Structure formats: structure tokens, C-alpha cells
Amino acid sequence: MKIENVLVTGGGGFLGKVIARKLILGGVKVTSFSRQWYPQLEALGVAQIQGDLCNKADVVKAFQGMDTIFHVAAKPGIWGRFQSYYSVNVTGTQHVIAACQANHVARLIHTSSPSVIFDAFDMENLDESIPYPETYLAPYPETKAMAEKLVLGAAKMGLAAIILRPHLIWGPEDNHLVPTILCRAKRLKKIGSGSDLVDTIYVDNAADAHLLAAEKLLTNTRLSGNIYFISQDEPISKWTLANAFLSAAGLPPLKGHVSAKTAYLAGGLFELVYKTFGIKKDPPMTRFAAKELATSHWFNISRAKKDLGYTPAISTQEGLRRLKKWLETEGLTRYGL
Length: 337
Fold this sequence. Notes:
Strand content: 15-25%
Distance between the termini: 48 Å
Largest sheet: 7 strands, parallel
Order of helices and strands: EHEHEHEHEEHEEHEEEHEEHEHHEHH
CATH class of the domain at 5-173 and 199-234 and 297-313: Alpha Beta
CATH topology of the domain at 5-173 and 199-234 and 297-313: Rossmann fold
Strand order of the largest sheet: 3-2-1-4-5-7-12
Number of strands: 15
CATH superfamily of the domain at 5-173 and 199-234 and 297-313: NAD(P)-binding Rossmann-like Domain
């Protein structure tokens, strides 16, 4: 028994594309399910099905003949209507589960986020036993938590599934974290004490963890229903990392500082104004972002090491070297810098 026919939801995205590439290199037949068509996937030899996660019929049809699903697609971000997050992250996951069950898919690897257990306070060296908080400050972590619970419920009903929680994925072709920092470099300021530490994960390491989860689930179904934090296993100051990204792009380091309290109050004010006037673009600050930027959040990945055999193959230093090379050759142009 082996993995033969794989579908990646969001295969054209940052993480999904790396997962697809690694699977292709391993001789696996890979299909991407996305709303768009991606020339890069075509060049890799990845089959593509265009469809919408919010359309159950699209998902059920796409999953026909698949033995393994990597559910990577999601709506990320810190701002927006709750329903827009719910429809993709929750309803979309309901459709993924239903499609797995209807097509007798053997394995589901679900990409989640540590933000699902973020309670707005420091979280240091915690493991997977930490409970979900009672309230959330943003729709993304709330809907991702709801999606996790759906997958856990499906696992109890017999679907072989593993949930992974990668934190702050970065690397070449990043379309979220790195460009956010680089494009806002002139107005970004440190928030809070600056001494807090966070987990991050280089994109190839995150992809490796996904492949390991599928491989281990193939031979050990007792892992079904498990949740795993995955990271560089090297907590770092978020401001040190931000300055490293800026340095890789040839930009000066961050200047200025804002207290955690001021950032939180400003975030609440921006949210009020943006809601009142129906402004759709992201506010400069939100309460969730203020709390996230001013606190530590790093986790114990012993469970992933033990069960999945996961260790980060690419160090943070090597990842930064690769990022710098990509930025110099094409990344800065892509980001409009």
C-alpha cells in the first residue's frame, strides 16, 4: 500500500505549491483543486481542477479516485466579514470531509494554525493539550478552530485524518508574511517589549511535515485524530526575523516603538472606524494583531518529532539565504519594490 493519487486544495498557493512539487518529485500523481489556473503547476506536471470549496458538488467530483487529500486552502488574514471566513474555512472543510467520505478517500491531512488556541496572552513551550479559548478577536482563528473540530469529529467517525499547525510560514514566493513586512517597512514599528519569542517555519519544512503525516498515517492509523505543532524548533524574536527579511531585501531595519496598550487601543479604534464606514481593506492595526505582535507564542513539537519523525531540515539561517537569493533575482520585482 502506498500513496498514489493525491489532491491538494489550494495547490497554487504558497504552501500548497511546495507540497505539490515535493510529491511530484517523489513520483506521486498530483492534482490541484483551486479557483484559478496556475502555469507553474502545469510546468511541474500537476493536474488542475478548477472549482470552489464552497460548492459541495465541485469538491465531491474533484475527489473521485483520490487516496490522499492535503487540505491546505483557506481564507487567511486579520480583517474581514465573519461570513467570508466561515464560508471558506468552515463550510469548505465540511465539503472536504463529505467528499472524502463519499469517495472513500483513505487519508486527509488538514492544515490548521496555532492561532486557533491563541488566548491573547503569552504562550510558551505549550503542547497540543492546550484547549481552545472561549472567545476570539478575529474571524480567521475562530473559523480555523471550527474547522479543526469538524476534522476531529470526522476522525472519530472513521476518517483517517491528521491536523497540522504550522506557525508563520515563510520563504521564497511567500505571498503573505514577507511581502507584508517589506511593503510596509517604512511605517512598521516594534510593538510591546520586543523580547517576546515566536515560532516560525520555513515553507519546505512545513511541506515536509505534511508529507510525513501522510506517510505515517498510511502505516499507523492510530495517529488519526492527532494534532501536531510544527515549526523551526527555534523560537525567535519576531522583530529579529522582520529585520532579517528587511536585510535580505536590502532595506534598513525597523525604527520606532509602540507600547502594547497603545497598539491594542489603536486597533480597537481602527476596527470601529472600518466597520462603521464599511472599509474593506485591512486596517493598519487590529486588536488581534496588537495582541499577537506583543506576546510570545511558541510551542513544544516533541509530539511531531516522536510520531511523525519531523525535524526541520532547513535551518532558519539557510532559509534566509535562500530567501535573499530569490528576492535578488525576482522577488523584489514581484513585490513591486
